[in-house]
């Protein structure tokens, strides 16, 4: 999944309200997107083949080059990094890369889902 | 954890000049906060916003988004080091966070962990900091 996004000041403001601390504005500029939700629910469900009702978020990694700037245009590319089974559990890894207008990386996220005891 | 000397908002300095993170609290987490986060990132998975769905999934209530818990942990770090100091984070979620949970963000050897009031660790975050 690929898309072009504008880093909406309204979204950043909503995130600042959700964080609810004096540092919220600075924090929001680091984490305004959740990679697995950028393309809607189908990104995680279809891409990883997980049962959403049993899938849990196990982890999220960030690699930052800089905070996002309000109003800037960014390109996001969401890819399935890996899908594997460990015991009874199914794991799925999504990567989301955000690049700016110059093509430079802003940040990279890796999101790990686990579907427990799926028995597939 | 170390970082450059230019960031001095609230952390304590060790004798060698390195910066030590302090403990911070966040919350109690509220349903409004969870709903605001859902709206901000566009994640309306019903386990976060629909109590009936959450209970049918075996949970006592809705749960906070994992990335919200991580965001609150990062916010406690940003409060002390500033946003430019963060280079990378590896967060692992280990327990659900419910409305009413007060979270304590506690420094560890290589980052922070998020503890609930009963001591349960909700998330562990390894951090890499430094100048860019």
UniProtKB/TrEMBL annotation, chain B:
Domain MaoC-like per the UniProt entry, residue ranges: 24-128
InterPro entries in alphabetical order: HotDog_dom_sf (IPR029069), MaoC-like_dom (IPR002539)
Annotated Gene3D superfamilies: Hotdog Thioesterase
Disordered: annotated span: 1-26
Listed Polar residues bias regions: 1-11
Domain of life: Bacteria
Signal sequence range: none
Family note: Belongs to the enoyl-CoA hydratase/isomerase family.
Protein name: Acyl dehydratase
The organism of origin for this protein: Candidatus Frankia alpina
């Amino acid at each position: 999944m690929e898309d072009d996004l504008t880093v909406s000041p309204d979204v950043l403001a909503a995130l600042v309200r959700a964080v609810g601390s004096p540092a919220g504005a600075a924090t929001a500029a680091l984490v305004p997107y959740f990679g697995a939700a950028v393309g809607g629910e189908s990104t995680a469900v279809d891409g990883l083949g997980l049962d959403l009702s049993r899938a849990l978020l196990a982890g999220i990694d960030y690699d930052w080059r800089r905070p996002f700037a309000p109003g800037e245009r960014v390109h996001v590319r969401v890819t399935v990094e890996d899908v594997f089974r460990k015991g009874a559990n199914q794991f799925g890894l999504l990567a989301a890369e955000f690049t700016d207008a110059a093509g430079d990386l802003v940040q990279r996220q890796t999101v790990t889902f686990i579907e427990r005891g799926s028995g597939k | 954890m170390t970082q450059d000397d230019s960031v001095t908002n609230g952390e304590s300095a060790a004798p060698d000049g390195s910066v030590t993170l302090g403990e911070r609290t966040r919350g109690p987490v509220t349903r409004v906060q969870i709903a605001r986060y859902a709206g901000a990132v566009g994640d309306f998975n019903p386990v976060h916003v629909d109590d009936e769905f959450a209970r049918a999934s075996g949970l006592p209530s809705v749960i906070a988004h994992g990335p919200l818990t991580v965001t609150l942990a990062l916010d406690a770090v940003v409060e002390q080091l500033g946003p430019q100091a963060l280079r990378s984070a590896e967060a692992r979620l280990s327990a659900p966070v419910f409305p009413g949970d007060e979270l304590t963000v506690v420094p560890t050897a290589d980052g922070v962990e998020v503890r609930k009031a009963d001591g349960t660790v909700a998330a562990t975050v390894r951090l890499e900091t430094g100048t860019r």
